[in-house]
Structure formats: structure tokens, C-alpha cells
Amino acid sequence: MEKNTLITGVAGFLGSSLAKDLLRKGLTVIGLDNLSTGKIQNLDSIMTHPNFFYFYADVCSPEIFEMKELVKTEEIYHLASPASPKFYQTTPFKTIEVNTLGTKNMLKLAKRNSAKIVYTSTSEVYGDPEVHPQNEQYSGSVKTWGPRACYDESKRLGEVFCFLYYTQHGVKVKVARLFNTYSFGLRNDDGRVISNFVTQAINNEDITVYGDGKQTRSFCYVSDTVNALQLMMEKEEANGEIINVGNPDEFSVLAIAKMIKKLANSSSNITFNPLPLDDPRKRRPNIDKAKRLLGWEPKVSLEEGLINTINAYRKNNNNG
């Protein structure tokens, strides 16, 4: 095999999108997933691709190091982890494990193979931020004691492992802090804002906003995120760096609900439910570093991305 790339969490929404893009560019892709939250159907269109090799595997297992298929891996995208509160709060211990032990295993593999590795961290490491917008130097306003901590804190510890493998072992590691990636590939039962609202809107069900809807988010379309991850892998300037990957356009949750209702031509009512514990009030990336080191900024507007997402969900509904 020529230069091959490993993607953990390949059956997830982001992992499968990245795999498809890399295959289009002629790379050989090895995908690992234990299907805890990923869906094998996400890989249907590439499962028979001659340059794609899928393995049911858990990155936390020591058996990873015995897989002969990984001996020549030169690039590792470590995406494995539940990313929706609905899923990581259901399996908090497994979430902690994949972001700590799983991350350490991937870094050990990168060290053994002299491979480059991109670790997908999260904007959740900023907690409920007191600095706005958030830049990479901000250490966050976070809690160890609460329902989101299993994800936030394990991702933070994953970053510590990355720092140590970079400084002590010279591993070419890059950390991407992702801000709310979305597209039609998101599970419609994912429980996150876009998937919830679009599913409710196309079914003309109540669109459920948590809190007063004034909390803000920044949403990045999947093709922009996938592009950023590949630039991080390619560029030497990204070695040993943490880089925000997100769209700096900021919207209130209520504005997003109204936009989706309008774009879907939906008759849904917008209803309000209590805000979940520790839900951040605002979230917006400063992407100056991504612009400087990667020459990257998002290209897809929220409206364009939502139209794509609504159309695809609707088509999926009709096919289902």
C-alpha cells in the first residue's frame, strides 16, 4: 500500500465525511470504529472502495498495536469519541476512556510509526467562557463537577497527552478544537441543535429551544471542518499547535430555530424548555491562528449549509 491514513471513529458523521474526501483525493484510508455512536451505514458508499479498509476495533484496546494493517500508517486522524451530550452523558466512563487512554494509544502508535497525528479536541474545553470570542490561549471556565465534565475534562486531558508526546517524544501532533460541526450526515437522533431543529421542522413538530434561546453558538459546515483538518495534517507549521476550527459567525439559538423553520417552510411552533445544567451561554471562535498558520477560513454560510442539511434530511425521510 502507498501512504496510508488512519481515521479513528470513521463511522461517525465527521469521520465518514473525512474518509470520503481523502479517498476522492486518492489516499488509502484505514478506518477504525467500535460503532458505539457511529453508524456503519455512513460508510455504505465507500465500503467496497479498493482503497478503503474498515475494521471493527476499540482504540482503547492494546490489541490495536498488534494490527498488522497499522504498521505502515503515516497519518492518524483521531476522531473517536461521542460528541453529543445525549451520547457522552449516557456513557460517561467510556467517553473518558476513549479521550484519554484511546488518545494515548494513538499517540503511542504515532510515535512507533513516526506518523503525524491530528487530535480532534473541542470548544467545550472553554466551558462557559468569560473571554469572547475564544482564542487558543484562553484556558477556559470549566467544571469537573457536572454532567458535561466527562467530555470536557477528558478532552482537556487528551490535549495534555498530546503536549507530552510532542515535547518529550517529538511526535508531530496537532490539536484541532472544533466548534459545532454540522451537515446532513449528523444522526437525526443526535440530540444537538441543528439535527434536532431540522428533524422537528421537516416533520412539522414543535421546535424545542432550551432556555430563552439567547445563548449563542457558531456552526461550521462539515466540508469546511474536513478541509481544516487536512491542512493541519499537511502543514509543518501546525506541529505542536492547538488551533480553533470553526465559523466565527455567531447566532442565537432562537435565531437558528427561526431560520430553520423558514428555510424548511415548516408549520412548526417554537417552544421553550428548561436549560440543561452547565449549558454554555456563548460560543464563538477566534480563528486568527487558523488563518495565519493554515491559510484557512470557512467558506459555507449557515444559510447555505442549512439548506443542504434540510434537503438531505427530507430526502432521507422520504427514502426511509
- The CATH superfamily title of the domain at 4-182 and 221-247 and 284-299: NAD(P)-binding Rossmann-like Domain
Strand content: 15-25%
Largest sheet: 7 strands, parallel
CATH-level-2 architecture of the domain at 4-182 and 221-247 and 284-299: 3-Layer(aba) Sandwich
Radius of gyration, in Å, reads 19 Å
- Shape, principal axes of CA atoms: globular
Would you list the SSEs in sequence order as H and E? EHEEEHHEHEEHEEEHEEHEHH
Q: What structural class do you assign from the helix and strand content?
A: alpha/beta
Give the mean pLDDT.
93
* Unreliably modeled segments: none
CATH class of the domain at 4-182 and 221-247 and 284-299: Alpha Beta
How far apart, in Å, are the first and last alpha carbons? Answer: 38 Å
Strand order of the largest sheet: 3-2-1-4-5-6-11
- Total E-strand runs: 13
Number of separate helices: 9
Query: What portion of residues is helical?
Result: 25-40%
Question: Which fold name corresponds to the CATH topology of the domain at 4-182 and 221-247 and 284-299?
Answer: Rossmann fold
